[in-house]
Amino acid sequence: MTKIKAEKKINLTIIFGGKSAEHEISILSAKSVVKAIDEDKYNISLVGINKKGGWSVISKKELLTGKLSLGQVEINKNTSIKKFACRENTDLLQGVKFNKNKVDVVFPILHGPFGEDGTIQGLLKMLDVAFVGPSVLGSAINMDKDVSKRLLKEAGLPIPKFLVYQNNKKEEISFVKIKEELRMPFFVKPANLGSSVGISKVEKEADFKKAMEEASLFDNKIVIEEAIEGKEIECSVLGNENPIASVPGEIIPTHDFYSYKAKYFDENGAKMAIPANISKDVAGKIQEMAVNAFRILCCEGMGRVDFFLTKDNEIFVNEINTIPGFTPISMYPKLWKESGMGYPELIDRLIKLAMDKQRRERKLKTSV
């Protein structure tokens, strides 16, 4: 696999934090990327976005030690991070320079809304800066679980049954109707969020109201989805026009489901089987389906495709994460490691794909 040559250093800016409920996870991901990156190849600038949308240039030491300015946010009993200083001035974007270096490529490690949904991607496209991951359309589609599921269904890929409700519409939400259409149990989740934030499993009517209230805290559109009994399988995808898939891995939750707490703050929240304990034939079908879903949903660069696999080997596509976690326990880099691509090489490939995408787009005419 081709690596980026080191004759000339690439000016790389990593943007992290953000306004979403996944702010803290973004910081953990950024730390992991910075630790793994080959500084002989890159001049690295770090930009943190606080929960109010303020941008700040951050030093590597501030990020890795957690000594970020302004206010403290507890992560767990052993770890804490601090919010970023909110700077009113907008000169960070003038001339597209950070820390006096012209930016060659941006790695937006921003999970959830205002980072993974096409917003930051649109800004970077307007500034003509190369960036890692899908462009505006692919980012927006995959952030919205309702839209992405409808596109997958239209393309003939198997997905769990689901219903959608809008908070701003005065429509009656009938538990009886949902139970009839989806059966029990089912999941209630915000349409535009990741990392299992705001997701509840409903196993009895008494849980339903609380689950809807929880999801409504994070989004005005709520997806209610049938629970598929079986294995939770994940597969990493990498590429632009010719994407490739990693070996599949399995998440084995020790909680009732793979919740936010289980993912990030409970060391024993889940076990990982990498590669997944499935047949070669099933693994091949999952890899093929992962690449197919990646293309259908207009992805570029990277994506982690999540599946359900029943005991009868039925495969259902759950969703694609276009900026998957990069923490030390995240599946995206772990699956590529098992597939023969280490963390530093994976970062190199992602940056090369970003720059290739920009060169391709710059060839397009912008006038007639």
Architecture overview:
With 368 residues, this protein is α+β, with helices and mostly antiparallel strands. The protein folds into three domains: 10-132, Rossmann fold, CATH 3.40.50.20; 142-158 and 229-322, ATP-grasp fold, B domain (D-amino Acid Aminotransferase, Chain A, domain 1); 162-226, 2-Layer Sandwich (Dna Ligase, domain 1), CATH 3.30.1490.20. 32% of the residues lie in helices and 25% in strands. Strands 14, 15, 16, 17, 18 and 19 form a six-stranded antiparallel sheet that branches. A hairpin with a 4-residue loop joins strand 14 (231-239) and strand 15.
Q: Outline the low-pLDDT stretches.
A: 70-92
Order of helices and strands: EHEEHEEEEEHEHHEHEEHEEEEHEHEEHH
Q: Which radius of gyration do the C-alpha atoms yield?
A: 20 Å
Broad structural category = alpha+beta
Number of domains: 3
Mean model confidence by pLDDT: 84
Tell me, briefly, the overall form. globular
Total strand segments: 19
Largest sheet: 6 strands, antiparallel
What is the tally of helical segments? 11
How far apart are the termini? 39 Å
What's the architecture of the largest domain in CATH terms?
3-Layer(aba) Sandwich
Q: Tell me the strand percentage band.
A: 25-35%
Query: What helical percentage do the residues reach?
Result: 25-40%
Here the CATH topology of the largest domain equals Rossmann fold
Look at the structure and give the CATH class of the largest domain.
Answer: Alpha Beta
